[in-house]
């Protein structure tokens, strides 16, 4: 039986483990959440700025510092401080935002052949639980056979994501390029719908492409360069080809091995942001 004709299988998942925290680099301005750094109305004060319109929360120290050098020129002769509108400074506050976490999962026969799909589902369930706790939106793209499918449009319902993942059948060839192209299209549409919500792309694959070529996949990956991403390397066995790592390099993404992600001893390590 050829890989393209391999029968479909469905694998259960183990209980979701605690997982690492992945973040979007830089400072955003999206919906309040608990994942990536963002400028928010609440949170700790990190600086001051000249307000563009009516000032928000006044930064008193910065306002006084802006006004102080001009007191003589303004004719101040007694106590108190002469203020002008140009002196006003508003507080810049930093908190956390929720992101759009888009999962792109290889559901091809090669994942089932090495009995990796149970571990994949376990890892992604852990990431879904993390997304729920951090008030993210989540979406799920899967690819197998000859095409990719958006099985869960971006939503705040992490329960729906978990249900779709548990029901996900596995089998057929690996159309990696199609999966990445579908992800790029989903992100394009979501950027128009909710431009303030920054995306985090999680690609779960061993980097193989048996429908299309690796070169096709790398060209598709180039469309995702600049999007904060993580490639979960599912390659197993003693001989490792490093295809997932090469794909991550093309995307400009981080790489984490599946076995490390599902380690129940689990370090929870925040990826440092290049702010």
UniProtKB/TrEMBL annotation:
SMART domains under this entry?
A: VWA
For the region Disordered, give the residue spans: 1-56
**Which superkingdom does the taxonomy of this entry point to?**
Bacteria
Start and end residues of each VWFA domain: 100-232
**Annotated SUPFAM superfamilies:** vWA-like (SSF53300)
The record's PANTHER family line, in alphabetical order, gives: CHELATASE-RELATED (PTHR35023), MG-PROTOPORPHYRIN IX CHELATASE (PTHR35023:SF1)
What the record says about family reads: Belongs to the Mg-chelatase subunits D/I family.
What is this protein called in UniProt? VWFA domain-containing protein
| Lineage start | Bacteria, Bacillati, Actinomycetota, Actinomycetes, Streptosporangiales
């Amino acid at each position: 039986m050829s890989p393209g004709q391999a029968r479909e299988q469905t694998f259960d998942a183990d209980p979701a483990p605690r997982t690492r925290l992945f973040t979007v680099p830089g400072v955003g301005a999206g919906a309040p959440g608990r994942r990536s750094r963002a400028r928010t109305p609440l949170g700790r004060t990190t600086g001051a700025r000249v307000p563009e319109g009516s000032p928000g929360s006044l930064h008193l120290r910065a306002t006084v510092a802006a006004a102080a050098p001009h007191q003589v020129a303004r004719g101040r002769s007694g106590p108190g401080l002469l203020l002008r509108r140009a002196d006003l400074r508003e507080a810049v506050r930093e908190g956390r935002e929720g992101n759009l976490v888009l999962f792109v999962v290889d559901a091809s026969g090669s994942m089932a052949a090495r009995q990796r799909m149970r571990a994949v589902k376990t890892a992604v369930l852990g990431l879904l639980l993390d997304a729920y706790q951090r008030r993210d939106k989540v979406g799920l793209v899967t690819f197998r056979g000859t095409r990719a499918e958006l099985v869960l449009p971006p939503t705040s319902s992490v329960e729906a994501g978990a249900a779709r993942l548990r029901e996900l059948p596995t089998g057929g060839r690996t159309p990696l390029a199609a999966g990445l192209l579908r992800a790029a299209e989903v992100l394009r549409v979501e950027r128009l719908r909710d431009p303030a919500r920054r995306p985090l792309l999680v690609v779960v694959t061993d980097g193989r492409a048996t429908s299309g070529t690796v070169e096709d996949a790398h060209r598709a990956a180039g469309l995702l360069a600049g999007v904060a991403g993580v490639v979960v390397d599912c390659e197993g066995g003693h001989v490792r080809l490093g295809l997932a790592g090469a794909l991550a390099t093309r995307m400009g993404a981080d790489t984490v091995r599946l076995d490390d992600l599902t380690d129940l001893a689990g370090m929870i390590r925040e990826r440092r942001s290049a702010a």
